[in-house]
Amino acid sequence: MTLISTHEAAPVTPALHALMSSAVDALALVSTAAIDYRDMDDATLLKLNRLAGVERQLVEAHAAVIVGEIAHRSAPSLGHSGLAQRNGYRTPEELVRISTRSTARDASTAVRVGLQSRDSQLAPAPQRPWLAAVSSALVSGTLPLASADAIQSGLGEPAANVPIPMLAAAAAQLVTEAATLDPDRLFRRARQLRDELDELGVADRERARRDRRSLRFTRQPDGMGRLTWLLDPESAAVAAELYDRATSPRRGGPRFRGELETKAERILADPRTTEQLASDVFLELLRHGAAADDSDLLGSGAPSVRVLVTAATLAAGVGHGRLEGQPDPVSIQTVQRLACAGTVMPILFDGAQPLDVGREQRLFTRRQRVALAARDGGCRFPGCDRPPSWTEAHHVKQWVRDGGSTNVADGILLCRHHHLLLHNNEWEVVRRGSDYWLVPPPDIDPGQTPIAMPSKSSALRDLAHNSAC
Length: 469
Hints:
By secondary structure, this protein is of the alpha+beta class. The chain is built from 20 helices and 11 strands.
């Protein structure tokens, strides 16, 4: 493998090379000795963490520009005369991966985003003009490379009902929101924005995901077997519901009284790992099929997938719904089909807070848990992405301390980790109308500034979006 040579027609500017070399030398002076950070106070340590993030983004900005130019000079049309092949690499991705010691995935992302950045800056007529704000934020060092790729991948291409100006506005909005979202959440947010802009394309995207479903069984050399199962969202909702019911007690999930509580305790005492337990349960389901005693296997009968849809959408027969726990919408035709088949539990949204129990009982009922799951969409602690099946119902007005009631309006879903954090570290949740706010303890924020706890429910977002239209 030969070394990368400088392109004869465009030599590296000496001043630019000197500046980058100086930047590397300056970074090398910053201590990486753990002892230098051991005695720092928390505030200083967090400031340094933020600065390290800025360092990384600036490095990625430089890398994106460089990789974009390398990829351009390695275009397939150039054949063996291209930069990558002249230096012994089959593709620019391989060149970047080996020369920077990165993963194949990271190299592929760098090439994809780098080419887009170069095209946005240098092409007379950029191929993807709607991503101009993304490229600008990337090269300025304010947008991480992975976040730029998330926006680019999540938004997709223009369509007849989603013209370039509309997509460009969405991209600019996502660049702003990227300041508080990691790349995975930013990708989901980009997909959500695309669905809001492109209602007519929901059914097509749903069909495309279904067409990608596959099941592959591979026999391993040691006699083991590997099952690789890619499920469309509707199928995944069924499998996920069964998986959660089989393993949630092991993961600190909900407990129920009576017979189910006994079964949950048996699961907790089982010596098998969670993965082994799930494997055995699914194998039993396959082995026994329709004749299996599902109540013995999983405790509550056939899988019940919850479909979230606004009452107005269902009545009009136009729009889309959501499968609980799945990020992408399904067409109204799928909602109607599932409802007709009787295999789902429809939950209609009209803005109300139903199912109050008051002070007659302390624990939230199963019906209330369903309502909370539909309203909250999972743990509402900021930044947490645990689904409803991993959560517990927290009394906003605590049962003993505040004399709180077991009402849906005064309940909120939190995963076990954040539920314990609230009770053990003096965090508080307050309700103002239908909005919920998190109040940090004084040692985290002396001013105790409330932090918004927006719902993670896609159905509620749909309701708000429809109301605003």
